[in-house]
């Protein structure tokens, strides 16, 4: 683990109008790690990711990426710097084709050859997307959409990939596939991953470290293994 | 029969103009769900800019020697002027209200419309301003049907603009980004598309097309007037609704239908009521099929 975190939140507060969703969240993600944030519905997991990406403004505290404060950076500049999110619900552009969705992932890139090569690479990674490349994104199944969402994010060439509930609404066999791919991305490309999941078991198995988020606050932080064997966590999040 | 064909050509000319204006309504609606009621004013401002440029060249005597250059310059300058005007209007009147209710922006649009129309009146006067008339005398006759050179120009130029727009929106990366922004602004930002820039671009394109239509109408009827944007603006709005608001192909089809109905209504029923037909269609569409011809069903042609 290198000394400097690539992504850090310092006492971040944010929310929606008068509703405070985050009440002082601090966390660190080091290069090459897979970090999981687990927590119940409404704990503020998605808000954390949206605040990192600048879609929701942090009212207090600091978000640091690569050692620089990014609170005031407009959200569309972040993918250019290598910070990219696969949001909750996947948010595929429903009336654009699969291929167009991928091309837009590379919207800021100018290397046409590299883009074409990456699209081919995505089709080799997810053959089903290649078969459906001319189809509208909205016509794909949930699992296919999740693959497309991840592929689209990879097209931005991320250094840090934020994943919001990649298992949501998917069949167990597809979930396993998706998590294998996430592990692959981390191991082969060295992409740092911050993962948000309600499925704590799954997330902690994939992660190196984990944070527990409860009603807008981090209540626990530990190695993923330790969290998996922590009796309180097992009781609260793993259904024992 | 000749009369019918003659009306068909007239309808095509007028319908093309409505289609050009309707596109601005529909594209802006597609991207920010706002009916830009100031859009008719871009059309009027375009007509004025055209007459200003053409009169200037006519004064220099260029109109006889370099007619193509004069026309090209007037279209280019007028379209560019209106594009920037629209970007400014959006920044001043709509952008600050983007997070407010839609009604706030709608009222702001109405205010902008009155402001721009009055601005035209104060700077250009209340009287009609005549277009230089040296250009486009005559036409081709096919038996009893006459197609003026001007009509040919309008139809060809309109066609070229519509084809160009289709290529831009459906074949280029920036067009892809426009469609993505219309579908999901948050996700667009997450793939580094700046919605502010796309919105500016949308206003600019819409206003540029309206400006071209303004010059065409000025050339066709021989003059412009400060309030000329109002009625065609609302008719083009009817066209956009008829085609399915937010749908680009729909706006083109809707414009042609409104133009045809107006010309045929005036030709076969009553010239006095020519302005009424567009509104009858508008009301009928809102009553029977509010989504318009192409709304919701064929949705891949949305912005």
From TrEMBL, chain A:
Annotated ABC transporter domain ranges read 7-240
Keywords of the record: Amino-acid transport, ATP-binding, Nucleotide-binding, Transport
Which molecular function terms from Gene Ontology are attached? Answer: ATP binding; ATP hydrolysis activity; branched-chain amino acid transmembrane transporter activity
Question: GO biological process: any one?
Answer: L-amino acid transport
Asked if the keyword Transport belongs to this entry, the reply reads yes
Tell me the SMART domains matching this sequence: AAA
The UniProt entry, under Gene3D superfamilies, shows: P-loop containing nucleotide triphosphate hydrolases
Coiled-coil regions, chain positions: none
| Family note | Belongs to the ABC transporter superfamily.
Q: Which PANTHER family match?
A: HIGH-AFFINITY BRANCHED-CHAIN AMINO ACID TRANSPORT ATP-BINDING PROTEIN LIVF
Q: What is this protein called?
A: Branched-chain amino acid transport system ATP-binding protein
Which source organism? Answer: Desulfocicer vacuolatum DSM 3385
UniProtKB/TrEMBL annotation, chain B:
Q: What is this protein called?
A: Branched-chain amino acid transport system permease protein
Topology versus the membrane, per the UniProt entry? Multi-pass membrane protein
**Chief location category:** membrane
What are the protein's GO molecular function terms?
A: L-isoleucine transmembrane transporter activity; L-leucine transmembrane transporter activity; L-phenylalanine transmembrane transporter activity; L-valine transmembrane transporter activity
Compartments, record wording? Cell membrane
Look up keyword Cell inner membrane and say if it applies: yes
| GO-annotated cellular components | plasma membrane
The similarity annotation says: Belongs to the binding-protein-dependent transport system permease family. LivHM subfamily.
Q: Which GO terms describe its biological process?
A: D-alanine transmembrane transport; L-alanine transport; L-isoleucine import across plasma membrane
Nuclease as UniProt keyword? no
Cite the entry's keywords alphabetically: Amino-acid transport, Cell inner membrane, Cell membrane, Membrane, Transmembrane, Transmembrane helix, Transport
Listed PANTHER family: BRANCHED-CHAIN AMINO ACID TRANSPORT SYSTEM PERMEASE PROTEIN LIVH (PTHR11795), HIGH-AFFINITY BRANCHED-CHAIN AMINO ACID TRANSPORT SYSTEM PERMEASE PROTEIN LIVH (PTHR11795:SF371)
Highest taxon above the source species: Bacteria
Q: Where are the transmembrane segments?
A: 12-35, 42-60, 66-87, 103-127, 147-169, 198-221, 236-264, 276-295
**Classification via InterPro entries:** ABC_transp_permease, BCAA_transport_permease
């Amino acid at each position: 683990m290198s000394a400097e975190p690539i992504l850090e939140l310092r006492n971040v507060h944010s929310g929606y109008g008068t509703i405070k969703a985050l009440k002082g969240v601090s966390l660190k993600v080091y290069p090459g790690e897979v970090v999981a944030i687990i927590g119940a519905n409404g704990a503020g997991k998605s808000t954390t990711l949206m605040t990192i990406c600048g879609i929701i403004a942090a009212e207090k505290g600091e978000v640091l990426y690569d050692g620089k404060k990014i609170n005031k950076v407009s959200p569309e500049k972040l993918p250019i710097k290598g910070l990219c999110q696969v949001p909750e619900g996947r948010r595929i552009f429903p009336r654009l084709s699969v291929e167009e969705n991928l091309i837009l992932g590379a919207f800021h890139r100018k290397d046409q050859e590299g883009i074409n090569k990456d699209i081919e690479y995505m089709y080799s990674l997810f053959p089903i997307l290649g078969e459906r490349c001319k189809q509208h994104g909205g016509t794909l199944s949930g699992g296919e959409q999740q693959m497309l969402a991840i592929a689209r994010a990879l097209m931005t060439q991320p250094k840090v990939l934020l994943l919001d509930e990649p298992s949501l609404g998917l069949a167990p066999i597809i979930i396993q596939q998706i998590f294998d791919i996430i592990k692959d991305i981390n191991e082969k490309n060295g992409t740092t991953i911050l993962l948000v999941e309600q499925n704590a078991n799954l997330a902690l198995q994939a992660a190196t470290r984990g944070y527990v988020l409860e009603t807008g606050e981090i209540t626990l932080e530990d190695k993923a293994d330790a969290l998996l064997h922590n009796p309180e966590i097992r009781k609260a999040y793993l259904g024992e | 029969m000749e009369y019918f064909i003659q009306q068909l050509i007239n309808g095509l000319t007028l319908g093309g103009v409505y289609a050009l204006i309707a596109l601005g309504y529909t594209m802006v609606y597609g991207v920010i769900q706002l009916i830009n009621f100031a859009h008719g004013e871009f059309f009027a401002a375009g007509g004025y800019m055209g007459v200003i440029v053409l009169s200037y060249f006519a004064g220099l005597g260029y109109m006889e020697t370099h007619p193509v250059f004069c026309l090209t310059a007037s279209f280019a300058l007028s379209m560019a002027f209106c594009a920037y005007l629209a970007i400014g209007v959006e920044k001043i009147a709509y952008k600050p209200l983007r997070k407010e209710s839609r009604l706030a922006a709608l009222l702001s649009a109405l205010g902008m419309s009155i402001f721009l129309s009055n601005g035209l009146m104060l700077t250009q006067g209340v009287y009609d301003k005549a277009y230089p008339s040296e250009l486009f005398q005559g036409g081709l006759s096919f038996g009893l049907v006459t197609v003026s050179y001007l009509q040919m120009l309008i139809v060809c130029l309109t066609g070229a603009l519509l084809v160009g727009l289709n290529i831009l929106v459906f074949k280029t990366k920036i067009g892809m980004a426009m469609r993505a922004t219309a579908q999901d602004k948050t996700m667009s930002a997450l793939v580094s598309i700046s919605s502010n820039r796309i919105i500016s671009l949308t206003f600019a394109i819409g206003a540029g097309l309206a400006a071209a239509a303004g010059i065409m109408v000025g050339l066709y009827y021989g003059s412009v007037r400060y309030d000329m944007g109002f009625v065609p603006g609302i008719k083009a709005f009817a066209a956009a609704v008829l085609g399915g608001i937010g749908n680009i192909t729909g706006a083109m089809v809707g414009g042609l239908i409104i133009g045809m109905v107006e010309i045929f209504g005036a030709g076969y029923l009553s010239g006095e009521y020519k302005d009424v037909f567009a509104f009858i269609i508008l009301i009928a569409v809102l009553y029977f099929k509010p989504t318009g011809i192409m709304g919701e069903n064929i949705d891949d042609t949305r912005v």
